[in-house]
Write a structure and sequence with these properties.
Layout lengths: L18 H23 L3 H22 L6 H12 L11 H15 L7 H12 L22 E4 L6 E5 L6 H14 L5 H15 L6 H17 L8 H7 L1 H12 L6 H34 L7 H11 L6 E2 H8 L3 H13 L3 E3 L8 E4 L2
Antiparallel strand pairs: 1-2, 3-5, 4-5
Amino acid sequence: MRKIYIYQKEGWPNFYWDKEIIAPLLLNVRYIQGQLIGKMSVFGFDLKNETHLSTITNNVLKSSEIEGEYLNTDQVRSSVAKRLGMDVSGLIPSERKIEGIVEMTFDATHNANKPLTKKRLFSWHKLLFEEKERDSKLSIGAWRKEEGGEMQVVSGAMGKERIHFQAPDWSKIDFEINLFLDWINNKTDIDNILKASIAHLWFVTIHPFDDGNGRIARAIADMLLARADNISQRFYSMSSQIRIERKDYYDILEKTQKGNLDITKWIEWFLNCLERAFVQTNANINKLMNKSKFWENNKTIVFNERQTKIINLLFNGFEGKLTSSKWAKINHCSQDTALRDINDLIEKKVLKKDVQGGRSTSYDLCF
């Protein structure tokens, strides 16, 4: 039998990597992480909570998007806010499915130092799929079964399928998971960031469930990254960055799973992806600091509800240019009301006309 996949190679799962390549990358990531934690430490309580809320919301959304599933943003944000005990305006009820996914994410990151067990993994799987149809052939909260046939990751039209990966036989899952969990819970002489990268690859290679393996692998990585951060608040989303680099993510996974036990390239990609997540987080933190500074500097100015809503949207990454027509649409008001609101903010030196011009006048914050 031809040994194509990494788990078929002699020595599995004794991974190794080039320390001369990985050590400086890990050192650099740790340095940037330290800088970000330092920035976070000077945040006030409200700003820390807002960062935490935004990070977990994005992590839940983007981890599902990687698998091609798009969740309702407002429902996810509401579910996260309720779990954080935050009084956020516009909270709406969330579907049970979203509540389950958010609960899994919270358990992984807020209980990061708890042992990872089969029972915990099964509970995560149930939370992901408890809303599946009752006649579903999925084994929910249990390992995949023999009757499911070979577990393959396939793409392409029928008759032109391409097999990207074939998982170990179902009969080996319990043995493989026992090795994995023993390593997760008892291997203490390895940096948790490095451990997160290995655990992600290892779990998704075992592929123990019928579905949801990628999301649970990323939750395990998040759990270990939370241990590495050693603070209660989450301030960056690895899944958000993986979503941006989705094609490269799947490419490097496939190459690694069809390679040997030298996983240097995979760890290198993971650490570089994490660094890019940190860079994006730094930009987001700067935006939050500007937002906080703005409201502090303008606390004596009276804004109406429509103006407050748009200003917050501009700080949170408004898509495209702000125009009077967009203002009217977002606030469900007339064009005349929108223009009055905008001109009032221009007089208060909060908004300015965009110098680039164009077919319709657009506006931006003054700083």
